[in-house]
Structures
1.
Amino acid sequence: MPISTNHRFIEGARAIARYAGTEALLSALQQPVVDFANRVRCTSVGSSGSTPRGITFRLDGRKEDLFAFWVERLADKKRGLGAISFDPARVSDELRPEFTKLLRDLQRMTGETVLNNGNYPSEAIGFVTVSDGLAVIRALDQFVGDAFDRLGTRAFAPYDPTQRGGRKKKSSETSLLTWDADSAPPGVDPKVWAQIRPRRGQQKFRQRLMRAYDGRCAVTGCSVEAALEAAHVTPYSHDAVYEVTDGVLLRADVHTLFDLHLISVDPATYTVRVALSLLADYGAWNGQPLRLPADGAQYPCAQRLEAHYAEWRRLAVTRG
């Protein structure tokens, strides 16, 4: 049965839009969003159950969200924001590079990148005008809808309900993704593992951060477990603190830049700060909120972040 705009979760979003003052955005975009969902054969509608509360859409028989749509009032209270989050990992390997490029192009077009807070499939494309919202939906519909018309379900990544995220992993990949012992996993050169292991962080420390940050990078929202590392706010060599409040779960490249004080976090606002030299490649995250644990007691220690941020500011002056 096709999805209707009268679905209870969509009606619930209307109530939130009235409260947030974003009724015009939702009213203009809800039907095009539902039409897109129906075109690619989504059969299930849900709610994120979090703030901002979004409408999530799933393909028939799958448990992971294909995409999400929501509207909210921005913190400055001056304008409303609409957003669509569509995880490029949900499309087939053949289509993914081109689709990822499309998502980036749309973010540049609207000038609004909404970073993933762990409640949606991935970082989102934001828009503050109805015209931009319609342009985003049309572009997604043209790419994904046309691919579905050509390829059917082969347009989407294979689904395995026994694996996280619905993607199958080879046994060698699984062992490397989950291996956290000092000795190398089967089939991996001990010398190679000796270089990777310290970056993963002490075993229990990393596991605690994985749980606290729901298995996602606090800056990028990346959920590829093999790429995630336990970063110390206090330099590891200075003071080996293994409390969650002294750590942040980061993607490997971001971890390196964090250690080099090319990326930091403003402790007053918990927003990400990126050095000028990196803005071309990492500018999408500059000024964006850090993805924080659900438990406020597990937030990074503001006092320790202040020391890191002070060094980032000092080096920013030196580097220019």
2.
Amino acid sequence: MSKVSVIIPCYNQAHFLPETLNSILNQKYSDWECIIVNDGSPDNTEEIALEWISKDKRFKYLKKENGGLSSARNIGLREAKGNFIQFLDSDDVIDSKKFEIQIKALQGTSENALSISDYFSSLENDLLSPHPKRYMSPCFSTNFFLNELISNWEIKLSIPPHCFLFKSDLFKKNNIFFNETLPNHEDWECWMNIFALKPEVKYINLKLVTYRIQSGGMCSNKALMKIGYLRAIEIQKSKFVRNSIEYLLLANRYNKILFGLKYNNLKIAYEDTPLGRMEYLINRNEYTIEAKQQDENIRTMFKNSLEQLTTDLQIDLLEDWQRNDLLLEQQEYQLEQQEHQIASLKEELKQLYTSKSWRITKPLRFMLKLFKNIYKYAS
């Protein structure tokens, strides 16, 4: 059998932790390990974790200083020994058949493969009651996963971490971890890194996960969520070639989040641009292979135009440099000639001042200056 490594980061959720761990213990698929990571929680997380370790040796316990959700998940990833990775937050639960169903779906797939199940959003204190507002489909509507993650995330698409079952090689062989500098949206940033690898995806149309929505959770702080999302987009933009489709989609998403509804007023016929048309088709599930090829052709044409423009600019700059260099030489020559003329005039003046005729005519020059002054005042 192939082992599943379950990673549960814990911080101040001790009152929900037994339900979470019980959902692991009840799995029909028995070959698993559950890594409980105490992220410096001040509550009685440790007491509960040690109790469950004594119940079943498949539970493992790690304790660390508080470093955040990403830090705790990353320690779990480094400790994981399984062939599959299951992330599970300490307040959520999974169906008893989740491992069994998703592992079966992943049989015969490549090492870069994952499975996504549907999920159920519940109220905080009642896992059987649906939350009235907090649900978005975890299912992609096209095969262009990366583009949908950029354009539709938290608009039409949302995939809680515990919906996934990953083949562990996705993380191990590609050195993928959660970004520990982000205050939130670390999951989206991680999914972007994974889907950039173009993994094989198996979708399970069953609600195998319960996502507990807490009223005072981090998601309720809209200002902090916005800051985290923008930072995550900036990180992802740095990983794509400038003016690639992914880069442009990320830039557009960034501006929409930053400016909100005002951004619509800044755009001029955005839907008529190639990027706008592509985003429109993605949202309508009509982004076909033909449409993608058209956009690839546009991108190639744009790239060629950009390269030609760069070449032209380099030629213009070289010509400007040559013209400026010639002009500088002319100015230096003129300046040198002027310096010679000034030196020559100084020499002539020196000779004049020291000449005999200058000394003899000095009284005459004095009388001439005096008469000029008398005439000036008299008139």
3.
Amino acid sequence: MEYNLIQKEIDLFRERYKTRRIIEDILIKEGYEYFEPSSFDDMDRFLPLMNTMGQASMVKLIASDSRILVLNPDNTTSIISRIVPLWQDGMKFRLFYSATASRSDRELGISEIRQVGVERLGESDFKTDEEIILLALDILSQFSIDFVMEVSNSKFVDGLLGETDLSPVEKRRLRGLLYRKDKQGISDFAKAAPLPEPISNSLLSILNLQGDAEDITAQGERFCINQKMADSIREITALKKFLDAYGYLDNVSFDLSMITELDYYDGLMFKGYYPGYFKDALSGGRYDSFTEDYGKKIPAIGFSLDLDQVTNLRIKQKEKEGEDFGLPQNRRGKR
């Protein structure tokens, strides 16, 4: 019995290693270089995350000199907090990492999130956004063609909230309702807050702005009240054409109400899901403004993949199809 338990764990480690190598090989071929996030750091380094994930979600340690340390809760934050203070104009980097993020939850306790991810720094053009989302789609398709990617643009929600006189606390509360897709909560908030009618109407309809790109852009245009919101519609339309050209449009759903867990994106955002899993296997987006919290605003975009979920998917495939199962090939068109 003990032997079987040990062998099962070894099998898991082997599949996780193979999965990581498949992803890393793709990234190396695309010109990405390996970067190693810190396992822990001073709590001050993660202060910009406090408004989104809160201290309660961080795993804290007390050093021998009484400093408060935090186990790395977010690999992107760990990386940019080290790079941005050294940044010089004109720099460009394509980085990838394989690392663990640690989070604390009242009910679940401390959890480790094994990730493989990429950060592309120094390029702000829309072509870079297209290349990043195409890379994410190619990686998802390496393990199953049955996946869905939800795509959004934070400028729509940001532009809408920018027209309000809500306090920072009220905005965080509303963003939390949007993150949870709490329709009743959003309705109650819109009715209780002193909001102009166009903004209130947009909030009451925002959860309906999900699905096919043409449908949501047509609906979204009706609620645009500033240039920022209009830019989000324009970028979604351009992205739809790009994804169609590469054969991925059937795998993509658009959602203008999207709010992510860490909520530091300021443009393109996306999440990838495999059938049978509630949690996203991949998430990412553009986060230029977040880098400013570390001293300088630089162009930045990236994504991370849940290594454990993809490994689990591979194991299920192997159990279903046998030891020599074949991985599906991606469907990327010509560059």
